[in-house]
Amino acid sequence: MKTLVICSGGLDSVTLAHKVAAEQSLTRLVSFDYGQRHRKELDSARACAVRLGVPHDIVDISPVGRLLTGSALTSGEAVPEGHYAEDTMRVTVVPNRNAIMLTIAFGVAAAGQAEAVAAAVHGGDHFIYPDCRPDFVNAFEAMQRHALEGLARIALYTPFVRQGKADIVGEGARLGVPFAETWSCYQGGERHCGRCGTCVERREAFHLAAVNDPTLYEDPDYWIGACREHQAKQPS
């Protein structure tokens, strides 16, 4: 199946790109500049495309991103620290981000005669991001059948939608993904900060998967206390 992958440059989407390249026919990577403070993730997406030998497009939707205010990723709000599943992480939601990106990607796929669009939404995102949940995935795919009726029939491929981050790390290890060449941190600094929700989630996932984490963190041990604190809040 000829498949286009939406690739941010993060661990999940780079692993997905490698999975598609190994199991299907990877046609291209599409990334989005929506004005995110961690725009350096796009460098990792570019490197992934070069490594896999496919075209790479960066779609500039930053004017749209400027209108999607209220998120710590696109506005001036501080990026919260702590466990990824805490309520405080809701400030990282960019309204309708995945729906906007997927709509563009489906158009690109139709124009390029691809048969599927792949997105790396995963089970760990369900709590925070409504446009990462199975109901959204199913509804969006149904909507696109109507939008492209008579023009193309394109599947939405989301193999991680019911899996956790540790499962993705395990899959990436199996596929030989160079994890050090992926970017997760929402701060977008010189190194992963180790304290924001995505850094804590990333570090915890490597631990749970029993896979060596090659990532350089400014605070490599913060995740331990953050995970312990989150666990203490869970009902017994």
TrEMBL record:
SUPFAM superfamilies: Adenine nucleotide alpha hydrolases-like (SSF52402). It is an enzyme of class 6 (ligase). It holds the Pfam family QueC. It catalyses: 7-carboxy-7-carbaguanine + NH4(+) + 2 ATP = 7-cyano-7-carbaguanine + 2 AMP + 2 diphosphate + 2 H(+). The keyword Metal-binding applies. InterPro entries: QueC, Rossmann-like_a/b/a_fold. CDD domains: QueC-like. It comes from the Bacteria. Binds 1 zinc ion per subunit. This is 7-cyano-7-deazaguanine synthase. It comes from Microvirga arsenatis.
